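Hello support,

Our group uses your service weekly, and this is the first time we've seen a run hang past the timeout. The protein is Helix-turn-helix transcriptional regulator. I'm not sure whether the cause is the sequence or the server load. Input pasted verbatim:
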Amino acid sequence: MTFGEKIKAARLAMNLSQTELAQMTGISERSLYTYEQLGTIPRKSNIRKLAEALNISVSYLLDDQESNTQIHREEDLFIAEAREKFGSKGAKEAQEVLGRVSSLFAGGDLDEEAKDVFFQALMSVYMDSKKNAREKFTPKKYRKHRKTE
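Update from on-call engineer: The timeout came from a worker crash unrelated to the input. Re-ran successfully.
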């Protein structure tokens, strides 16, 4: 799938019109049309807005291969969980961590199962360290009190 096809498929899967997606992202309808129909690749900030609005990863949008869709789903879930627990800054940090770590495997000899185990461990460590940092460094009066965490 091309970039434009991925945008269109994700938009339709969420039952959104181009107008609705434009309103959600602040990107003009005309720009959305050029992304979907003409295959124009937007600037980085618009790619990020589209990924957030469509609940998909930036890496999925930019990856020409379809073979890693399960990995992308797991990454998307990880980023969504980071957003839920730590806000948009946490989600952005999680996405940056994944981007940096995935470059370690470029051209490597590890099989997919080993990579999956590594990413699962990384995601677990990230969530735990963010939670611990929140508890240690955020003054009690600013902490969100949650019953289940």
